[in-house]
Amino acid sequence: MESKSKSTNENVGRCFLVGAGPGDLGLVTLRAKECIEQADVIVYDHLANPEMLSWARDDAEIIYVGKRAGEHALGQEKINVLLVERARAGKQVVRLKGGDPFVFGRGAEEASAIVDAGIEFEIVPGITSAIAGPAYAGIPVTHRAENSHVTFFTGHEDPEKTGSPIDYAALAKLGGTQVMLMGVQRLESIAREMLKQGVREDLPVALVRWATTGRQETLTGTLQNIAQRVAGVGFEAPAVAVFGEVVALRESLNWYEKRPLSGKRIVVTRTRKQAGELSAQLRALGAYVFELPTIRIEPPGDLRAFAELVQDAHSYDWIVFTSANGVEAFFEIFFKLYDDGREIGGARIAAIGPATAQRVKDFHLHVDLQPDEFVAEAVVSEFQRQGGVENLRILLVRAEKARDVLAKQLSALGAIVDEGLAYRTVPETRDTTGARRHLLEEGADLITFTSSSTVENFLTLGLPWPEGMQVASIGPITSKTARDHGLKIEIEARRHDIGGLVEAIREFFEKGKGHG
Length: 516
Ligand code: SAH
Fold this sequence. Notes:
By secondary structure, this protein is of the alpha/beta class. The protein folds into four domains: about 15-125, Cobalt-precorrin-4 Transmethylase, domain 1 (3-Layer(aba) Sandwich); about 130-255, 2-Layer Sandwich (Methyltransferase, Cobalt-precorrin-4 Transmethylase, Domain 2); about 265-295 and about 430-510, Rossmann fold (3-Layer(aba) Sandwich), CATH 3.40.50; about 300-425, Rossmann fold, CATH 3.40.50.10090. Helix content is about 35%, strand content about 20%. The chain is built from 19 helices and 20 strands. The chain starts with a helix and ends in a 6-residue tail after the last helix. S-adenosyl-L-homocysteine binds near residues 128 and 181.
């Protein structure tokens, strides 16, 4: 990786104070993503969405310094020391902070400690929850007709304590939109103080918790009743509170909480590399997705044997790909051996399933035969329709330990079949993003399986099954594997690709059959 050689060549440690945005992965800046991809060390806390750690290098040191149930945060002083120490050792250190690093949350103190230690640093601003939180609840912090200034204040300090740094009398006089961070616990005394200073009782107030994530919830009320409502429903931090006329605009502008999969917690079990598309499509519909890869793609046991077959690719009549992984593994080697796509010669290409075919097309090659389903009979009959396979040389590119029915059936019809074992799937043992812990603590509404191996590997992890978690499967073969393991399938895609799966999930929840 380019970044890696860069960081090892220059032995100057640096510290990047990076805003992780409010939660939604799409709200992370391009610069933040670059920093994460290049980091030697990443120090993050509990408001930074851990999914973004999947962008980190495999060998990056990842350190959690936030508060976790029952545990205490690494003290601020210790965090400062940690950053300085790692940077002094020549590391590229990314300090990942929720929202914007300089909006509350002690980023300024960390920057000072870094500067005092004489370490080079960079600040990467982020989208603050103070603005994004309201926006995702349909509340613009300004409106020409309502206000011409916005105040951000911390609710961390108790207004009833003497020496509170916040001048509530001045705030009351100022009016406009006021956004409070860190204040859920003290909301009652803060609201009381505002009323005492003459703010009107029916001023609209909204609280947005876990804003911009799939767990987002919004509670609205007035200055008079908001604290009571918070207590009534047990509304908890982290939340942003907005005080002001603009809150009323939510009635027409609320958008995020109205999407088809809003509030649904969905587990994606594909490999890290492949999860992206499914996750993105589900997120776009409002789901709270967490990726829990159970498998990883590794080179096959005998890479040399596979490479030799790839080298002879041009000598086959057909090359049959059974999965997108196979296509990738094949061309990775092919383009190491050859620098011209035409070296594939006259070999025709068959790709099973639309995702496999798409991957072939990505390499600008034509797919000559595209059976839709990976059912050996279906593939064979497609070949028969094209004039049979007798005496044809076929290279079947597949995973180690995959089903070999297809090779047998093609051979039985007189084809000369070579099986290229292109890759193997191994259990994913790491949990960089804390997704497993998350599943145990927060539960889920739905788990998605996109192949038999995702089912088997998920079950191999031996995690307790969260209450009420339903199952969505990409097609009959995956469903059968799941049923064989005693799972009940609530959703099965009619079209056996990612788009088809997402469509089925959407229909399912729209019909209101889902829990929660
Ligand atoms: N630097 C951060 C704020 C850190 S202070 C930022 O710019 O957003 C921590 C407070 O931020 C929390 O107590 C809460 O009030 C707010 N906060 C951060 N992320 C939030 C989120 N996703 N939803 C609601 N509030 C959030």
